[in-house]
Amino acid sequence: MKTNIEKALQETFFLNREKNFSHTTYDVEMLQYETLKRGEDEAIPLGKQAFESAEPHLLSKDKLRGWKYMFVASTTIICRYAMDGGMDSEMSYNLSDLFIQRADLCNSVQEIFDLHDEMVRTYTAKMKDICRNDRFSVNVLHVMDYVTNHLHDRITLEELAEYTAVTPSYLSAVFKKETGMTISDYIRRTKIEAAMKLLQYYDDLSATEIGEYLAFSSASHFTKVFREETGMTPKEYRKKHYRKWKEDGAK
Question: Domains in the chain, please, with CATH?
């Protein structure tokens, strides 16, 4: 038996070299899993890149079945990393079972890709909630959620205090203590992060329109704040990052 396994292993090495194939590097895989465990959004594109660049034909002569095998392997590892990051084991196992059952019903490779993306997004979102809940109090979490859901509005400390049912002074103090930044700085940073994504992915929206959508007082104010946060004007940021995204997508 040992001889047969060694022979098959050497044949696999030979075929992979002939086809110039190598597996995803360990560092790339670990970066994907570690960012997901911390609930970081970067896990989503990393997971997509790592999964869709795989070579499932090595697992099965049937292309679709090979991708299903890859899906099971990916989901199983992510399930374990999520638990290591603090997710309840029953929740993690149940999510894993649910997605693997759905993968079994897929009829195309594209369906597998879409489901894998959904799986990574689901685990990442839940890990983000777990990490946030471990770090911040309820009032601070309420502020963060409110800001995220009202990026198109001008948000004041008074309305946040009313929303969280505490005094403005108390809310300001506890937010600064837990996050290390003022509420106004947090609102500003969150809006600029949203602007960065809009500039990167939506070229049909002008910088002026984005600034208006995010409730900046004027185009010049938006440009000033954006430059202070990123070191670039909105136009410069789009030129650098939108083109790169388009080029990467064409590869």
Answer: 2-134 (no CATH), 136-250 (1.10.10.60)
